[in-house]
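Dear Dr. V.,

Thank you for agreeing to look over these. As mentioned in my earlier message, I'm a first-year student in the group and I'm still getting used to reading structure tokens, so any feedback on how I've presented them would be very welcome. I ran two proteins. I've put each sequence directly above its structure. The first is here:
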Amino acid sequence: MNNVLYDQAVEILERNDLGHYTVPTHGLYPFQWNWDSALSALGQYYINESRAWTEIETLFEHQWEDGMVPHIIFHKEDDGYFPGPEVWATNRKVPSSGITQPPVTGFAIRRLYDRAHDKDMAQRRAKALLPKIAAWHNWFFANRDPDGTGLVAIIHPWESGRDNSIDWDDAFSRVPTEGVGEFTRRDTMHADPAHRPTKEQYQRYIWLVQHFRSLSWDNSLLHDASPFRVVDPGFNAILLRSCADLAALAEELGDDVLATEQRRLAEKGLAAMETLWSDKHQQYLCFDRAAEALIDSPSIGGLLPVFARIEQSRADAIAARIDDLGRRVKYLIPSHDPDVEGYDGARYWRGPSWLIVNYMISDGLLRDGHKDTADRIIADSMKLIHIGGFAEYFDPMNGAPCGGPHFTWTAAMVIEFLKLTGEVA
């Protein structure tokens, strides 16, 4: 059966492969998404090692001059998605959005390099990507951490990858809806509206896009100009893990200057992460930079720091927290605590389980010695696939598939789990 699953995962990756980039799924997401590409490359490696590198290289071909890597690259026209390039109006040769996403590429290329069969090719391509990824990391700290705290803020919920998380509700309520104008969503034509963000949330999303567009997408201005400025521990954990992995890879490839710089960023950020710890919840919390207060909302964002090399005592506490969640849901890991107001097991990031988050958290838990918890996460992930196929995400109570079907990064994570557990050679 697992060989069948592997073959099905490969078929999905090939179905969504457009030659030099993949789409997350046809219809719902018809362009190249940033962190989707980085994580999907891990699965592509087992099909075509060179093609995996191409996925990330294509992303960085569209890096902005200031170092930012946008969250969507509009490689071709497709009116099946909103907001399209005419809404963003970033005036790029190849249209892109004007915001970014979790910077997981440092982690991804280190993993591709460590696994490489063709070391000469991997070394050449890694060396070319190192300074580009470092420039993106540096961009974050220059533009999203103006006070030098060691942690960066997101300025739009879409940047987090957790678009409609309960974490954002209070901070997002400060974003106006007036003056946005009429628009037609396309996502609800491809997926059940009950699985997607609400109309009001979309109005606020678009208000922010229009606001940033009015500032000509000047990244030196956008942080302070945004009414939504949130320090997400999950987002920062991904950034800090990528900084540390980029440092290790740079050191191996002989770039000691870049290695020292990236290691310094990782160490400073990990120390600052402790300001987000909640003894009450035994996990990290988001921080509303505009309100200057922690957000009392126990979500997956506060568990993701185990992906970075946090203190062992914190990793132990997060493992115990996940074990507790595992007694309250059938399939780990819910994207929000199921006993908190606002939880919705079918609606995007307000409760559902996602294999990509399961993958990153289990990776950190395995490193930190919590094999039993990691094994449960991996086993639950595979059960979800057996129940609901290669869906975008799943209800953690009953395993029902939600969101888009035939999802690229879900397939990539299935391949990763099958290889990790030795269930396929």
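The second protein is here, in the same arrangement:
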Amino acid sequence: MPGSKLDEIDRMILAELQADGRMTNVELAKRVGISAPPCLRRVRTLEEQGYVRGYHANVDPRELGFEVQVFAMVGLVSQAEADLTAFENLCIGWPLVRECHMLNGEVDFILKCVAPDLRTFQRFLTEDLTSAENVASVRTSLVIRGAKDEPSVPFDVLEERLAKEA
């Protein structure tokens, strides 16, 4: 199990950083029960090993005028690796697409999109997404409201699982 390669302190560091990536190294060290220099070394190692992919602020899109959030389920004509990669590269270039996930099943990709208004999303949908090469179908669902938006992973579940394996 990948999480088991990390010791308890590394997992606590990751959980704390996930909850608040802005805290100082001194505060982080205090929370996980070690001194600041080894804490900083551990954080840098976790970053270098890819456990920490970056730090960002959780910005509220609606506060910035992005009133429309849509999930778009996309079916492609071809699922050849080159075609899948080409579609992923298109998504990377579309600013309104905030997440892009390849799926197994009836839908090839699900995209999380934000837009300031319905007209802007509709223009993206008709001019970019549905007209993109290899796109066979697009079904969209407009988000009415969100009930949960948690970052990354549930560390309590990881710790529970590791305790059962010990």
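From my reading of the second output: The mean pLDDT is 94. DSSP finds six helices and four strands in the chain. Does that match how you would interpret it?

Kind regards,
E.
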